[in-house]
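Blinded run. Sample ID left blank on purpose so nobody reads anything into the name before looking at the predicted structure. Input follows.
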Amino acid sequence: QDGNLWKIGIAHPRNVSDYWGAVSYSNGAMATSGDYEQALNRDFTYHHIISPGEGLSPAELSSVTVTADNTAYADALATAAMVMGRDGAFGLISKLSGVEALLIDKDMKGYQTSGFPAF
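Blinded prediction complete.
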């Protein structure tokens, strides 16, 4: 209401008591999907997100944060992007109006679309 931006912390996928980064954002929704909250083993190779084509947890990404017009849309896209991997996710998101994303791979390297909020 006061016109100020929200400061939002992006959880670190391997140290959830810390942040991977923080962004300032308003006027939209943001959702994150990742392998870290529901991991089934210590190296995060098996977790609650399952690729329907392979029947296994996707191996490329650790976390995806998506901004969109509403939370349900952002959440669905974040989970889909986890399954699709970096190239597939960027291919999809580049076609969607008003959608931006931050992808963090298993080496904790981040990749973001040009319109994702600045750190």
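Unblinding after everyone has recorded impressions. Residues 71-93 form the longest helix (23 residues).
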